[in-house]
Amino acid sequence: MSTESCISHLVCSQTGEKLAYDELQTFSPANKPLLAVYDLEQAAARLSKEALQTREHTLWRYRELLPVLSTGNIISLGEGDTPLVPLSQAGAKLNMKQIWVKDEGQMPTGSFKARGLAMAVSKAHELGVKQVAVPTAGNAGGALAAYAARAGMECFIFMPKDVPRINYMEAKLTGANVTLVDGIISDCGKMLAEQKEKHGWFDVSTLKEPYRLEGKKTMGLELAEQFRWELPDVIFYPTGGGTGLIGMWKAFSELRQMGWIGEHLPRMVAVQAEGCEPITRAFKAGSDESEFFDDAETIASGLRVPKAFGDALILKALRESGGLAVSVSDEAILEAVRELAELEGMVVCPEGGATWAALKQLVATGQVGRDERVVLFNTGSGLKYPEMLETLT
Ligand SMILES: *Cc1c(COP(=O)(O)O)cnc(C)c1O
Question: In CATH, what class is 84-111+212-392?
């Protein structure tokens, strides 16, 4: 079988131990996330920036830098290639001219979780998996259920009973077995861990398998391409498990090694909610890992992750990039969602709103300059949050 993927092996993100990519893998023997490593010299030789332009407008255009070996195994709903929407009126309020929203609300299943789960499900399908399971704060469950349905896999989802109602309904409708849990994502994770071995389910929890990260990495590849290989100055990312932030930082590193981008890399800003801010606290404390955040509570359900499995990688990316972590209140999030709707016609998710609230905060403190090029991530469609929209109207 000929393959375009230039994947070479997997490594433990802590010890560097090598593992094979051609069998089913979870996390490393050291209990840390595994990272996919590619032969980037080969990738640079096989793929050109010009050739990319002629390819399909989905994330699968970057297949040399993705883990799926055979295109026949790709399970796709047309994910990727989301637009960069300039914020002109909102930007003018801050006296800034170069702010864009990378609008992931336009993805299949209405959130950027589609990127990671399209990749994880496609790769699992390639490796013969028939049953998948996930603990979720909401959108990952909807996305996994959709791709599992398309792949003909059985799907088991554990979600808090107070997730946005839509997340429950979309997962049910696409045929998943949904367990509503009296707790938050960490409780869902525990429940899944107790059951998965008995049933033989493959667990696609954030960073507990290597490929959701590779799907989210494509946000970084797209940004580089959309900015004509001159990356912006600051990226605001609403951080729960942190997959996208770690993934984009990995993408930039791979592009640098390929010689496709220069030395200027963006400062990565992790945005959290005040009601669940383990990364902000760890960043401020100067620690390499976060501590479990008790009684996590925020309207931004995707940010309600009290302890991220990849916390060390998030903190590393923030520090390497010269970025930081910042928290915003639920009131500031709601205000931000309202502002983007009124000024820009964008109905963003609360997590996306958080990035606009955070930008305003960091411009006020001078940590972001008014002449800088800034990208905010709107990670999902506000239309998935009717409960929030009700409180705003
Ligand atoms: C999951 C989620 C997040 C957090 O993403 P991570 O990569 O886990 O940090 C942010 N926004 C939305 C809408 C989400 O569903």
Answer: alpha beta
